[in-house]
Structures are given as structure tokens and as C-alpha cells.
């Protein structure tokens, strides 16, 4: 279980120390630095003791001098959090000050001083670079890497191919958008009991719509993320479900409204109708088998489909009964972006899980047309990620944490920007760290 209170407690303890040590690189030799007490060198790190009431000013001054802060640590000894040494969120103090531009009153002479060997020996601070070197890899990342998992050789793939699809039947086709919402989104459940279509959470199936394309050839398949667990919505291994939005857009030249061929076909299917299914496919979005894993889910619109499958497997009573070997004890956090409240797909299901498992599941919504971001614009999922970036970053560093992103590709840049800022506070380059997450199979993306 992710214990938010412990993290917050650590931050409060370290704030009380009132003196921090900045590890700085890149300071330029020049007239301005000549007037400081900083021991400027062409390479290596400079360590500067900064009282709390000077943190904001010192950050600005270091920036003016061309320096980069690669780490910030409290001078006092580390407190223990749940039996583990932790720096917690000491750098969150810096973030708060930099944002507000305010300075708290504090004891001390209000001057930043360099840390020398004598001060370190007296217990003022340990050299952060030396301490961090023990935990860094060859690229300088401070991440403790999990070993990459072996290829999922036992995962079913391409049981049914386009030239020989499985013919399933529509059991139900229910609307997911409430009154006043935007667009058409449907939850479809198909009967697959007549075949051998097995799948697991995180995979997709192909749907082949009837008819011919504009070139007179049979329509090609479209892939859709599966929205049900391996046992299906009825937990009887006889169904598979999809979450489908009717594609609708304006033709760039004629201005006429164009509807997606396959999505429109699916959204208006009647129960009992036949459906051509291929697959399953995909190994990128699979859940870890570890019941103690942490799962961060970032979804927009119908990108909720695989997230629903994960959450059902983790929390639904019938699913838990069907999987006695898998008892989820970790922490899942869903940040879900939609245009309006009526577009919160599976809202009742999500709120039920949150109410029943408040310590294991957290739901955060970004409702773009109803909520405002700090700049006064629309609240998108990347704004929510920025809002919680420090907390997400602490969670992502945990070896047991897996992050899943599904939905519109446009959100990725904003997510990376937010996490870049959070990681930089600890001297970590997010782009490098993210590559290591991918190698460890802990960063999963399926966007379109």
C-alpha cells in the first residue's frame, strides 16, 4: 500500500531543519562569481549551505551565474520513514518558494555559504555527489533498476487472423456517456464461447467491419483495447468487451462531417449481430504479476479501456474469487482526462472501487471543459500530472511501480514536461531515466 502520510511526514521533518545543501555544477568564472565565496572550478561540483529563508534568492542567483542545481539535501541527519532512510520531498520546499516568490522568516544570517571539507567533517553535510555515486549507473542515473522481465512467451497472440477471423455475437451494446455529454461512446460485450479466443488484461482485438473500402477492397481490421479481464464481464470466460467511441470529424476540404467506418458500425450494433474478431495482440500493456505492485494509469477518453480491465482484476469481488492466486495489495492511481463530467466513462464503477478500497485506489479527474488549470486554461490530463508531479515522481522511483499511458498521443509531451521538472529537482534527467524504465518494462504506452 502506498502511504501518502509517510511521505508528507518526511517533508515536514526536513523542512524543520532550516538549512539545506545545494550541489551545483556549471558555475562560470567571472566578475560576478569573483565577488562570491563560492569555490569556482572548471569542472566538478560546488556545495553551498543555504538557510531556508534564502532558498528562493539563492536559486535565482545560481541560475544567473550559469549554474545548475543537481541536488538539494537537508543538513540534518536523515529521518527514518517506515524503517527506510528517505530524503522525502525536501526539494518540494524549493518548488513552493520558486512558484510563490515568497520567503519565510527564519533564523540565521541569511547568507548562503559554501560547504568545505571542514564543515562536512563537523557534520554539517555529507557530500551529495559522493553519496549518490554509490547508487548511480554508468549514465549517472540515480535509479535502482529492476531486471527486465523475460518475454511473455505464454501470452496468447493471433489465435485468429484476418483471413480467418472468429465470428462472435453481440450480447449487449450500452451507452457510456451520460445525458449532456459529448459524442457517442459504447460498452460492447461479445459472446466468444463458440471459439478459442483467450486473452489477458492489456491486450487488444481486431474488428473487421463489413463492406468495401473506397478502393473496392474488403475493409481492413481496426484494433481496440480490451476493456474486460481475461474472464470477461460475467467472469465465465465466455465474453470479451470493448469501449468504443464513434469517430467523428470535419473533412478538411469540404467541411462535411465524416464518421469512422468501424467505430460507427460497432456503436450501432444490435444484440445478436455477428462480429468478425481477430487476435488477440499486444504485450506492451500487460500488468505485472506482482500483487504488491504500484500501478499509475494515465488515460484520456476510451483509453480507459485497459485501465478498467486492470482495476477489475485488482478489485472486483467476483474477479478476486476467480483468481485466488492473485490478491492485489499494491496501490493504483488513475488520472483520467475527459471533456465533461457526463463523459467520465465507468464513473460509478470507479467510484465504487475508490470507496471500498481508499488505501489502494485513487481516482483523479481532469475535466477540460469544466475545470481550470493554474494558468486559467482548460484542465487537461497533463495539467493534473503537473499538479501531482512530485508525488508521482516519488512513486515512479519505486521499483514496484508500473506506469501505463493510453489515449490521445498529444498528452505525452505534457506528461514528460511535468516529470522532467520533478526529476530535475533531484538532479535526474527524466529522458534518461524514462529509457531505463522502458528497459525494465515499467513504462507502458499505447497512444494514437
Characterise the protein shown here.
- It contains 14 helices and 19 strands.
- Helix 11 (381-387) runs parallel beside helix 13 and helix 12 (389-396) packs across helix 13 (411-424).
- It is globular.
- The protein is α+β, with helices and mostly antiparallel strands and 448 residues long.
- The two termini are 32 Å apart.
- Strand 16 (331-338), helix 10 (347-356) and strand 17 form a beta-alpha-beta unit.
- It has helices spanning 4-15, 31-34, 55-64, 90-100, 117-121, 128-133, 261-267, 304-315, 317-322, 347-356, 381-387, 389-396, 411-424, 430-439, and strands at residues 19-25, 46-51, 68-74, 80-81, 84-85, 113-114, 166-175, 185-191, 204-208, 222-225, 239-245, 248-250, 257-259, 274-281, 294-300, 331-338, 361-367, 401-407, 443-447.
- Residues 1-17, 37-43 and 76-150 have low confidence and may be disordered.
- It has a six-stranded antiparallel β-sheet with strand order 10-9-14-7-8-11. Strands 17-16-15-18-19 form a five-stranded parallel β-sheet, with helices on both faces. Strands 3-1-2-6 form a four-stranded antiparallel β-sheet, covered by helices on one side.
- The protein folds into three domains: 4-133, no CATH class; 166-281, Translation factors (Elongation Factor Tu (Ef-tu), domain 3, Beta Barrel), CATH 2.40.30.10; 294-447, Nucleotide-binding domain of ferredoxin-NADP reductase (FNR) module (Rossmann fold), CATH 3.40.50.80.
